[in-house]
Write a structure and sequence with these properties.
This protein is mainly beta and 201 residues long. It has one domain: Porin, CATH 2.40.160.20. It has 1 helix and 9 strands, in the order H-E-E-E-E-E-E-E-E-E. It has one helix at residues 2-19, and strands at residues 24-37, 43-44, 46-58, 63-78, 84-99, 107-124, 143-158, 161-172, 186-199. A hairpin with a 5-residue loop joins strand 4 (63-78) and strand 5. The longest helix is centred in the N-terminal third of the chain and has 18 residues, at 2-19. The radius of gyration is 18 Å and the shape is elongated.
Length: 201
């Protein structure tokens, strides 16, 4: 629990420094998640929505920090079954970014990695019913902490306005199931696109 609190505090102060820093760009983001839950019998990929916003803070020409705040649908489906576990999170990934090429280039590839924190709004099955134990307690923890690693492309639209495309692999650090000795983790791929607009200078 202490590690989760420390990670949440770190994420907050890093995001705060980005918002009040320069140069900064913000924008909307939309995409899709292709997720599953590890160590679940016959688990297969479940497609979900990813929507929200993002911020980019440039340290220099090649290094930056990226933060996303996303409504993110995760979970899993089961082979040869209509059953799904749909987990709806508010997710905050924070990443260090390395940009290839130079600022004036029309196209700039990038790589990124970092932690994420997420809050679970609800967990529902294929009948849109809450997933709970027989005693009414939640099956899934309300918090999820993990890591992301990815690649992307930034295309210049006009002066300091960029189309951002990110392909990300993410996985939980801890089990998301509230039960002893479990190792069930969110993992999978996310594909997002957004447009960034400059803030300030």
């Amino acid at each position: 629990m202490l590690k989760r609190i420390q990670l949440t505090i770190f994420c907050y102060f890093l995001l705060h420094s980005m918002i009040f820093g320069q140069p900064l760009s913000l924008g909307p983001m939309l995409g899709a998640n292709f997720m599953s839950i590890s160590n679940t019998t016959a688990s297969k990929t479940l497609v979900g929505l990813s929507i929200g916003g993002f911020a980019n803070y440039s340290i220099n020409e090649h290094l930056g920090i990226n933060a996303k705040l996303l409504y993110s649908q995760m979970g899993t489906s089961i082979e040869n079954s209509e059953y799904i576990a749909r987990l709806n999170y508010l997710q905050l990934p924070l990443s260090a970014v390395y940009f290839f090429g130079n600022v004036g280039n029309t196209l700039r590839p990038k790589i990124f990695a970092g932690p994420y924190a997420a809050y679970l709004f609800n967990a529902k099955d294929h009948n849109d019913k809450e997933i709970v134990y027989s005693n009414g307690e939640d099956v899934y923890f309300k918090s999820d902490f993990g890591g992301v690693i990815g690649v992307g492309l930034n295309f210049i639209i006009s002066d300091r306005k960029w189309l951002n495309i990110d392909a990300t692999y993410s996985t939980s650090f801890y089990s998301i199931v509230d039960a002893p000795n479990t190792t069930n983790k969110n993992n999978g791929f996310q594909l997002n696109a957004g447009v960034s607009f400059p803030i300030g200078k």
